[in-house]
Here is the input.
Amino acid sequence: MTTLTKTSRIPSKQGMLENVMRQFDHAADIIDLNKNIRKILEVTNNEFVVHFPVRMDNGEVEIFTGYRVQHNNALGPYKGGLRYHPTVDIDAARALAMWMTWKTSLAGLPYGGAKGGIQLDPTKYSQEELQRITRRFTYALGDNIGPELDIPAPDVNTNPQTMAWILDTYMSTKPPAERSTNMHVVTGKPIGAGGSEGRDRATGYGVFLTIKFWAEQKKVDLKDKKFIVQGFGNVGYWAAHFLEKEGAIMTAVQDANGSIACEEGISVEKLLDYTKANKGSVLGFARAKTLENSEFFGLDCDICVPAALGNQITAQNANKIKAYLIAEGANGPTDVGAEEILLKKGIDIIPDILCNSGGVIGSYFEWLQNKNGEIWQLDEVMAKLEKKMRDSFTRVFETAKERNVDMRTAAFILAIERLEEAYVQRGIFP
Amino acid sequence: MGNYKRSICSTCRHAPYCSLTTDMGNISSCSDYWHYFDDDSEPEYMVSEEMMGETVPRIPNKEPILS
Here is the structure.
């Protein structure tokens, strides 16, 4: 039960899709993108909707709906996450798939963009049921995913275990002699099942690296610089960890539970230990005072790292910001109105599409290792990540200077130009 | 929480008191997302710490390696 559709123009423009399209249109206008290539990039290549039956623990059969949207593959296999959530639908998958195309293009990876998932609430199913749902979804997608075609990864409510099930199911559908050549059908696998060292910290390390490269360009010494972090999850923690190692001082943190600040500095490792023992909350950490949430972005600091969620810096709080650098660890933390204000104030923004691209680069390294039968040590992964991120950052920074645009626009220009070049050189079949 | 039909906040345990945002209508990713579980249906992890190979911040049910 598979539905394959081809879209004319992405019809729904809600939320993230609207943002992604606006940024695309803005950059496309600046570079006067070939109108035919613009038409291609405005639509998704393939959209799969699969309905599949799974037997539940009680013996009943339930029908699930899964999605996979493949936006573009001009630069290589489609790449993007699979999420399990009640809000998964075709519109959400479209926006996120398109976003992945720009991100992989800017990062200089041989990938396109995709996204998908299953519309379900995972809390309602046992682990055994989730395993059967995952395996049946993989079977339903069949050869519409593959190590050289479309490579899923973990996303909301999916994890390395989910990827291991997909890998095992996909491999099982292949002849015995081909099975081990398909390890790279998914990334984000457990280390023991072909995962990569360093994948856990890749996004946060990438955030740190872009800050470091920015500081090098601006001749700023990060030692003793004050930074604040919104979101102390995987990205926020690792970015803070590496900034602290560089000598910078974390003076405030905000998470879902509240905000804390300490002028003398908050130890990143001690805070991590504290949150582990405190149901994940930063509130109540020793020597730190609790802040009103509305005060957070107005705190006196040098660097602000929004690493939680979108639309956090808005026209309402942008004027209060004292940091001279914003490093977007989250997707879309700065809204349009805020960006205008910040740029006028001379505040630099390292855009999300560049700043948090370490994660997909880490995935690429896992894919490469599997493809080539290699296992890289952690220091090797980190060194390669630094090289790749430096290249991306430098290209964005130089393009921003040359074209007299902000770094976000420069990033989109570069991402779209790379795709345009591929189409111009290859032509359109037939 | 059930009102945010297009947002992952609809199933986030933090939503009733979240200090990160009050605009929960269209959130597609969040570092602090914590899927709501009934206490008696919380799934067990099947991937061991050794298999993960890392000592990363482990907050229940947060995706361990992907941002």
About this structure: The helical segments of chain B are 49-52. Chain B has one domain: 1-67. Residues 1-67 of chain B form one domain.
